[in-house]
Design brief:
With about 475 residues, this protein is of the alpha+beta class. About 35% of the residues lie in helices and about 25% in strands. It is built from 14 helices and 23 strands. The chain has an eleven-stranded mixed beta sheet, with helices on both faces. A five-stranded mixed beta sheet has the order 16-15-17-18-19, with helices on both faces. A hairpin with a 5-residue loop joins strand 12 and strand 13. The longest helix is centred in the C-terminal third of the chain and has 26 residues. It is globular and about 80 Å long. The two termini are about 25 Å apart. It binds zinc ion.
Length: about 475
């Protein structure tokens, strides 16, 4: 079945790509998701890249239980109020009503900081640099596969430090790890910024974010890193004997990225034919489609395809031979285009006679013959080229849909059509922020940490002097 076009029906396009490319499906409980092998392989590639960077920056993985006593959560007021509407509560287990209800973790600051109160006594015990991979539950009223699901997979880092400076540095370091995974691995250009108080993580003093722009010109928050100050240390009694002989509260960070990144991958690169996967996260980088009419041709072409697949695998390329006998080549071409395989290699009797193979790029559609002996090297080079081309393409799209605005009217017009980031001055007031949200649905996605946006003139909403430059967009 043909996909809806992105321009006409982006949500329908997204839903059909997820379904037809076999990435995931809805499960029996509303909002929960079955991640199918092809979608899970994409997640694994992202997860592995992130895990590598988490470890390279000195962190270790650990694991905490998914059940948290409700009373434990209640100790950090802002935190519990922020998450309470999304709690899933266990009241019965083991055939009886529980003495106290358990919350299925929506995030683990509370139970982890409760443990840190036992793990930390002296400055010598610090810093604690830990991360966990797991699942969390946040009851979702308007679910969408990968983007908003009641249960999702993620990592959550939880660190404890002696000083505020150290904790702030840590929060920035992990934001940089997210930037690297987004840009260098997923080929998604991101802007780095701070969140406004209204958009912060409940209980955080500062939330840092990476924000990307999707093909429908909506923003996606792709990873957040929080400086939590001493809020959790105070709520859970994490004190340590400092170098000065005095008791101090520990300083905290937490940072997370989730399976929503798979949704970002789909929406940042996809086109009307389906996915376009960056080679670094593509489960298969090259698929060989054998073309034949007779049994003789078949055995000859399949044998050569298998030989080439081995050679290319040795060169470090993830390659698969599509030898499904019941499907015509044209169907296979469309199928691999839908699944976003970076390169298709067509191999028929005429190619064999000419000592060549025909390579077709998914990202550009460029097609041409390559000598069979040189094909391995060509493919290795092509992987880098395609990775970069997808990044450049997404960056050009993002830049073309980022506009400096100087008035509320200009902001509103841009958000309505074509949409994207509208960047302008902001006075820092929650009223101006709320007004834009009420009238345009756009929220402040980030206050830039870097990048080309100038600190613009007065607040685009009220005309008072600005305290920050803000980037507004409609967001997922
Ligand atoms: Zn204002």
């Amino acid at each position: 079945m043909a996909l809806p076009s992105q321009e006409q029906d982006f949500p329908g396009w997204y839903q059909e790509v997820v379904r037809q490319a076999d990435l995931a499906e809805n499960s029996l409980v509303r909002g929960t998701m079955v991640i199918k092998p092809y979608g899970y392989a994409m997640w694994e590639a992202i997860r592995d890249a992130l895990d590598l960077r988490i470890k390279q920056t000195g962190h270790q993985n650990f694991y905490f239980p998914m059940f948290i006593p409700a009373r434990l959560l209640e100790r950090e007021k802002e935190h519990v109020e922020g998450f309470a509407p999304e709690f899933a509560l266990v009241t019965h287990a083991g055939g009886e009503e529980l003495g106290e209800p358990l919350v299925v973790r929506p995030t683990s600051e509370t139970i982890i900081w409760d443990a840190y109160s036992r793990w930390v006594q002296s400055y010598r015990d610090l810093p604690l640099l830990y991360n966990q991979w797991g699942n969390v539950v946040r009851w979702e009223m308007r679910p969408r596969l990968f983007l908003r699901t009641t249960e999702f997979l993620w990592q959550e880092g939880h660190t404890a430090h002696e000083t505020r400076e150290e904790a702030l540095e840590e929060a920035k370091r992990m934001l940089e790890a997210y930037r690297q995974v987004a840009e260098d691995v997923m080929a998604i250009p991101v802007r780095l910024g701070r969140k406004t108080p209204a958009e912060r993580f409940p209980g955080a003093e500062e939330t840092l974010t990476i924000e990307a722009l999707m093909r429908d010109r909506k923003a996606l928050q792709a990873g957040t890193s929080h400086y939590l100050g001493q809020n959790f240390a105070k709520a859970y009694g994490v004190t340590f004997l400092g170098r000065d002989g005095e008791e101090h509260y520990a300083e905290a960070t937490s940072w997370g990225a989730s399976t929503r990144l798979v949704g970002g991958l789909i929406m940042a690169h996809g086109d009307d034919k389906g996915l376009r996967l960056p080679p670094k996260v593509a489960p298969q980088q090259v698929v060989i489609v054998p073309i034949y009419r007779s049994d003789d041709e078949r055995s000859r072409v399949i044998a050569e395809a298998a030989r080439l697949a081995d050679l290319w695998r040795e060169a470090g390329v993830r390659v698969k031979v599509d030898d499904r006998d019941d499907l015509r080549p044209g169907f296979k071409f469309a199928d691999h285009e839908l699944r976003g395989v970076p390169v298709r290699a067509e191999l028929g009797p005429r190619d064999l006679d000419a000592g060549q193979v025909t390579l077709v790029r998914r990202d550009t559609g460029a097609k041409g013959p390559v000598g069979i002996d040189a094909a391995g090297d060509t493919l290795v080079a092509l992987m880098d080229e395609i990775q970069q081309a997808l990044f450049d393409d997404a960056a050009a799209f993002r830049d073309a849909h980022t506009k400096s605005v100087t008035s509320f009217e200009e902001l509103r017009t841009w958000i309505e059509d074509p949409g994207g980031f509208a960047v302008g001055g902001w006075c820092g007031s929650a009223e101006c922020e709320a007004k834009v949200k009420a009238e345009t649905k756009a929220t402040i996605r980030y206050l830039p940490l870097e990048g080309p946006e100038p600190a613009d003139g007065p607040c685009v909403v009220c005309g008072e002097p600005s305290v920050d430059t803000a980037a507004w967009a409609i967001a997922y």
